[in-house]
Amino acid sequence: MMKRQVEVFTANCPVCDPVVSMFRELACNDCEITIYDLVKQCEDKTCLSKLEEYEIKKVPAIAVNGSLLSCCENQGISKEELIKEGIGQG
């Protein structure tokens, strides 16, 4: 089975940190995780091009297998949405 490619976009703020923590608790070995710290903007600017590619308007945001979660398109991230996308399930 292929690993889920999960990209987490954060600004290391009081809003982002709890979501990143929740995600880390849920994530399992079937998730290949990349966390983009938008404050540091990653050396190669990959995170900025990903922001445009996924049309991310706010953080925190999570993309799974190249698709921004629907909860990240307009409202916040929910645990239910993560579980629905298979996060935390082997």
Compile the SSE list and pairings.
Layout: E1 4-10, H1 16-26, E2 31-37, H2 46-54, E3 61-64, E4 67-68, H3 70-73, H4 79-84
Parallel strand pairs: 1-2
Antiparallel strand pairs: 1-3, 3-4
Short description:
The chain has 90 residues and is of the alpha+beta class.
Which short descriptors sum up this protein?
4 helices, Glutaredoxin, four-stranded mixed beta sheet, globular, alpha+beta
Structure description:
With 90 residues, the protein is α+β, with helices and mostly antiparallel strands. It has a single domain, classed as Glutaredoxin, CATH 3.40.30. Helices cover 33% and strands 22% of the residues. It has helices at residues 16-26, 46-54, 70-73, 79-84, and strands at 4-10, 31-37, 61-64, 67-68. It has a 4-stranded mixed sheet with strand order 2-1-3-4, with helices on both faces. A hairpin with a 2-residue loop joins strand 3 and strand 4. It is globular. The termini are close together.
Cα distance spanning the termini? 10 Å
CATH superfamily: Glutaredoxin
CATH class designation? Alpha Beta
Arithmetic mean pLDDT: 85
Strand content: 15-25%
Structural class: alpha+beta
Tally of DSSP β-strands: 4
Described by the principal axes of the CA atoms, the overall outline is globular
The main sheet comes to: 4 strands, mixed
